[in-house]
Amino acid sequence: MIRNAIAFIKHYHSGKQRGGRADRETFERKLERLIVRHVSQVRERSAFYREWWGSLPPEQWRSFPAIDKTVMMNNFDRLNTVGITKAEAFAVAEAAEASRDFKPAIGGVTIGLSSGTSGSRGLFLVGAHERAGWAGAVLGKMLPGSLLSRRSIAFFLRANSNLYEAVRSKRLVFEFYDLLDPFSEQLERLERQRPDVIAAPPSVLRRLAEAVRSGKLRAKPERIISVAEVLDPLDREYIGRAFGQTVHQIYQCTEGFLGCTCPYGTLHLNEDLVYIEKEYVPGKVRTFVPVVTDFTRTTQPIVRYRLNDLLTESELPCPCGSPFTAIERIEGRCDDIFYATGSGAGEEPVTIYPDFVTRAIIGASPAIAQYRAIQTQLDVWTIELELPEERRGLAEEQVRAAIAALCGRLRCRTPQLVFSAYSHEAGTAKLRRVERRYKP
């Protein structure tokens, strides 16, 4: 217990400091020492990594072969350091989801399931010491005011976890809102709770913002935090206007607590917890795929794990002065990059990044309240729009023109566009504004 309390306090204070104002070179040297020490410990405890890295010394960790979700899940039993098998972990996690009782664990180790937006679900294991550190880091970085102040937090997610419950204390009221519950009941609970902080996926925050604007929700939280889904510029603006404040973000997945916003609302990578190598992508300035090494986790070590996300670095430094990398936006998944037929004969398919699609659609008409773009075939996109019916015809023509202009700049064939009404229901599944269902 004392060890866990020390981990909590250490990560809380580190989170509050956000790297201080150290220069980047000094900061990088410190990280290098931490990672080399961490890798040495992982090699001793994980049979999988010991074999995966071969004879390469810890100092050459950047030369270790990267892993991904498939490699991790195929080697789960030998990768984790606490002897939990994949079958055992899935059994506990799936039973918790079925019963909606998310407290069970194995020997004090929290078991969780990822949401499986890539088509297959992943497992994560977090020990008690790591859970305490995570709670300290999250509260240090995201809780407004002092830890000694009384605060009430409302947390909306598909599934609860011992990990999230770790933030509960005598001074912190933590209420989990199950996304499977009726929205009307959630509004009633919020009115009774009157939370200081609301954390929820953007699709749910959007519904809460609509309730605020219609007068159905009168709660006035100090902070709004977007989690679990990509925060689209359209949603960020709408939610921010409704609540009258900056919308903050947490960037977290199975692989770790990867980023969060500073007081200025800029998303920064949590480089006091994870080291992120950047695989820059062609044709998109400052955009990269992250390769993650989490040097705070030993139960399920994450070393050189290649994510499937697209992140764009900020062009200008953040005025907060933190040495942590500032991110302009999370664009989405590599799986959601669209492809189009090149305009010339025999050309390779042209890459269209999710951000290009987003900007074309939301810039086409101010009448568009919500949208989805789904690529169903090489040259066929479905565009779902939410807007007043009397403005639909004009807006569809404007979107058609904007996408044609985009394809002209990219020198590719303009796809056939199939328009329909907006259909996503918040809480049922993760919202993906730009989604590719076509498989090249």
From TrEMBL:
Which InterPro entries is this protein grouped with?
A: ANL_N_sf, CapK_Type1_Caps_Biosynth, CHP02304_F390_synth-rel
> What name does the UniProt record give this protein?
F390 synthetase-related protein
Which species is listed as the source? Cohnella cellulosilytica
